[in-house]
Design goal:
The chain is mainly α. The chain has one domain. 78% of the residues lie in helices and 0% in strands. The protein contains seven helices and no strands. The protein has helices spanning 2-22, 32-53, 66-94, 103-128, 133-159, 165-188, 193-216.
Length: 221
């Protein structure tokens, strides 16, 4: 029963976040089956992320050296998780005909990020108890959505260029950097955890602006 409650407590907020961003695309909304496909791909990538991060688990503390903390935050977690979520978007949506306007990159990026966060939230809640579920559902889910949404901005641009590899690489590096900064704040405890929350809010505001611009520039208008 407890496991079922934890699943629901993590899944429902995730679905609501996906729906929230989905409604922002007022021109040509993505079909539900594509959102489910991308959500599932993002969720499935958690297992690979866990295997990647397991050897470095001792570095996820304030007692680790500065270099260890920087490496695990920016490379292992930041780059590692964002690369896996980017691959989820590429495999699930990038080459599909439904991806037919730049804003779709943001929608699919956000969806993959939320899929990832739902599984991660289940694991955290199983470990630390239901009391962490609300904070995880609000902050961690939005953080993953925003990080992957940044990649999605560049993914949407790359999709409609003859050579979009540079855009994809730039988006991945930027998403990895902000994700790494978020985790470094939490791991190294150099600032209050509220600084990480403020960072997420700033990224969210920027992403919302970029999303609106992408919608207004849709070729389907």
């Amino acid at each position: 029963m407890r496991f079922f409650v934890i699943i629901i407590a993590s899944l429902i907020p995730g679905i609501l976040w996906v729906r929230f961003f989905h409604l922002k695309d007022r021109v040509d909304q993505e079909p539900a089956y594509m959102l489910i496909r991308t959500f599932a791909a993002g969720a499935a990538s958690v297992g690979l992320a866990a295997m990647l991060e397991w050897p470095f688990r001792e570095w996820l503390t304030a007692n680790a050296s500065v270099l260890q903390q920087l490496f695990v935050a920016f490379v292992v977690i930041g780059l590692g998780e964002e690369l896996l979520k980017a691959l989820a978007v590429y495999v699930a949506a990038y080459r599909r005909d439904e991806f037919n306007e730049p804003v779709d990159g943001i929608i699919y990026g956000v969806t993959a990020g939320i899929g990832f966060s739902v599984v991660e939230n289940v694991l955290y809640t199983l470990t630390y108890g239901l009391e962490v579920a609300p904070l995880r559902a609000l902050v961690a889910s939005l953080a993953h959505a925003c990080f992957s949404g940044i990649f999605g901005v560049y993914c949407g641009r790359a999709k409609f260029k003859a050579t979009g590899g540079g855009e994809l690489a730039e988006g991945l590096l930027l998403a990895s950097f902000v994700h790494g900064l978020y985790d470094y704040i939490l791991i190294a405890q150099v600032l209050s955890p509220w600084a990480a929350v403020v960072l997420v809010v700033i990224i969210y505001i920027v992403l919302q602006r970029l999303l609106r611009q992408a919608v207004n520039r849709s070729p389907i208008n």
